[in-house]
Write a structure and sequence with these properties.
Elements (H helix, E strand, L loop, with lengths): L1 H13 L7 H12 L2 H4 L3 H15 L4 E5 L20 H8 L2 E4 L1 H4 L4 H10 L1 H5 L3 E7 L4 H14 L3 E7 L17 E6 L8 E4 L2 E5 L3 E3 L6 H14 L8 E4 L6 H14 L2
Parallel strand pairs: 1-2, 1-9, 2-3, 3-4, 4-5, 8-9
Antiparallel strand pairs: 5-7, 6-7
Helix pairs in contact: 1-2, 2-4, 7-9, 10-11
Length: about 260
């Protein structure tokens, strides 16, 4: 069993995609090798320990999607006959960040917001993060709703993602919102500081990845994630990467999440 495991890990470490893993892999191998016979650890448990150690060793990107309510997910990502009120908890078990569409979060007011905060309480306590999508520019109505959400869901509300191809958004944010990060997604404008371009779209401001369409093939996904990772400032840990679009292909997202973890991002 140990020999099979060693061959598996050596091949993985020597693969071009996983060169960065080699030092960690060998460290883990040396840690476990003296205990295999005595403990008689099953291959399944050993591989589980291996991957958990790898993920703890590396600083990962946090993958998420544009919303968690998509009709095409019913019976595919979400099990058939699952009540819709369980969707968020199910999503939060697999992903730890989400970008909420503007038409959804604009309804989070008054008793609706208070009830939502209660329903999501356990998941928010686990470190789940929300980002709010802002179409066009901020106005007084949007600011008031965001302030109310921040009061109820803080610190789970992490930032705003602005979508505007027409003009540069009005910044800085009001004083009440200045603890939120701001990222702009635009074909024509860039915020000062960090920026990344993909498919003719600039993503700028607070580092955060966003794509309107995710490639279906793992090789293309790996190239995309490598390009994004290379754009980040040094010591950028736990950066969010959002897969957008009106209909998000969760099979492609799950594959990209796996690719991301294997790459050590």
């Amino acid at each position: 069993m140990a020999k099979i495991y060693l061959i598996f890990v050596e091949n993985l470490a020597n693969s071009p995609l996983f060169t960065a893993f080699s030092a960690a892999i060998r460290q883990i191998l040396s840690h476990f090798s003296s205990h295999l016979t005595r403990a008689k650890v099953s291959l399944f448990n050993l591989l589980t320990c291996f991957f958990e150690a790898i993920l703890n060793y590396l600083e990962n990107l946090q993958m998420g999607t544009f919303g968690w309510l998509h009709p095409s997910w019913e019976g595919t990502f979400y099990p058939e006959d699952m009540p819709s009120e369980w969707y968020f908890e199910f999503y939060a078990n697999a992903y730890h960040v989400v970008l909420v569409p503007q038409e959804q979060w604009m309804t989070w007011q008054g008793h609706v917001l208070h009830a939502l905060a209660g329903d999501l309480g356990l998941d928010l306590a686990s470190g789940f993060r929300f980002y709010l999508a802002v179409d066009s520019d901020l106005n007084d109505e949007k600011v008031q709703v965001i302030e109310a959400i921040l009061n109820e869901l803080s610190p789970a509300l992490a930032g705003l993602v602005l979508f505007n191809d027409v003009k540069m958004p009005t910044l800085p944010l009001p004083t009440t919102l200045q603890n939120l990060s701001v990222t702009l997604v635009s074909k024509n404008y860039k915020l000062p500081g960090w920026c990344w371009q993909t498919s003719g779209v600039w993503v700028s401001g607070a580092p955060l990845g966003y794509v309107f369409t995710l490639p279906a093939q793992g090789k293309q996904q790996a190239a995309l994630l490598k390009d994004f990772k290379a754009s980040l400032p040094p010591q950028s840990n736990g950066v969010v990467f959002i897969v957008g679009g009106l209909e998000v292909d969760m099979l492609a997202v799950a594959n990209a999440k796996t690719v991301n973890e294997f790459l050590g991002y």
